[in-house]
Amino acid sequence: MKYSIITIGREHGSGGRTIAKMVADKLQIPLYDRKLIQMIAEDSGFAASYVETSEMRRTSSFLYNLYFDSRNLPLDDQVFLAQANVITKLAEKGPCVIVGRCADYILRDKPSVLKVFVYAPMEERVRRVEEDYGEKASDYQRYLQKIDRHRSAYYDRFTGEEWGNPHNYHLLINSAIGLPAAAQQIITLAGGKEKE
């Protein structure tokens, strides 16, 4: 396989997580998504719930700054360093698919990494979040925009790059083409052959 590590960033509701699972299943390689949260928690000593919500916190707030003093790194910085450590170790172990967590940036200097970003039209994201994910919101569009803002702020803060910027990825894919078709495009670009 030309690219043995596949990182998948995604808009919430785009189906990126499902696509990642399809890719990992077809290539028969490990998928690190929710499992990654537990691994980072174990490495950092933070609760898994804290790690999971780290990208949803605004890390430049006054309250955030109260959490640390001049002798220690801010808590979210500690989580990010643990995250980078775990992701780097996973990439060294062998082929895998990693969802989110700035993995594309953390592994940016490795030539064997395929960096993918999945997006979708707002109406499709709203439908998927409501019908497939079962999430509840009074205004789904505002709900998705809020999640995107948090993910973007997190990515921008820790990478210095712009989340979703096409220059940061090898492939941006609109999941409106269908999740199986999107997964197949990623497999093809990675140079992988589906296992029977």
Task: Note the main attributes of this structure.
196 residues; alpha/beta; 5 strands; 51% helix
Kindly describe this structure.
By secondary structure, the chain is α/β, with parallel strands linked by helices. 51% of the residues lie in helices and 12% in strands. The protein contains nine helices and five strands; from the N terminus they run E-H-E-H-H-H-H-E-H-E-H-H-E-H. Strands 2-3-1-4-5 form a five-stranded parallel β-sheet, with helices on both faces. It is globular and about 45 Å long. Mean pLDDT is 89; it is low at 60-71.
Helix percent reads 40-55%
* Sheet with most strands: 5 strands, parallel
What fraction of the residues are assigned to beta strands by DSSP? Answer: 5-15%
Average pLDDT number: 89
Would you kindly provide a brief summary of this structure?
With 196 residues, the protein is of the alpha/beta class. The chain has 9 helices and 5 strands.
SSE layout and pairing:
Blueprint lengths: L4 E6 L5 H12 L3 E2 L1 H11 L3 H5 L9 H5 L8 H19 L2 E4 L3 H4 L6 E7 L2 H11 L7 H20 L11 E4 L4 H12 L6
Parallel strand pairs: 1-3, 1-4, 2-3, 4-5
Helix pairs in contact: 1-9, 2-5
